[in-house]
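DM from R.C. (forwarded with permission)

"hey, sorry to bug you on a friday — could you get me a structure for this? deadline for the figure draft is monday and I only need the backbone to look sensible"
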Amino acid sequence: MKLNVLIVDDSSTVRSVLKKTLDLANIPVAELFEAENGREALQILHDQWIDLVFADINMPVMGGIEMVENMSDHGMMNSIPVVIVTTEGSQTRIEQLRQKGIKGYIRKPFTPESVKDEVNKIIGS
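My reply, with the result:
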């Protein structure tokens, strides 16, 4: 099954690296969408069918935490898995996000193997 994937990060470099990493990890992607912040991501989530979201925490306009809270408030966390991809290692913050419904966490810098492992845990092989 090919996935519609949304990558949310204010860095175009990180978005490009994650796209390449998905390819190297042999993650079957149908369509790939990009957003520079949580507000843009929410608009895409309202307009498109998305199977999986990769999101940074720290972004201008709307960060990943606020985006996850908004998704949770609108019931989207039940049907759209979110993987946080960040340099931040605060276990307290990650646990708070898990309580709000995120399905995974990947620490930057990431490898194709770590991305593949996380996607397989969420979506299945």
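R.C.: lifesaver. The two ends are 10 Å apart (CA to CA).
me: no worries. The chain has one domain: 3-123.
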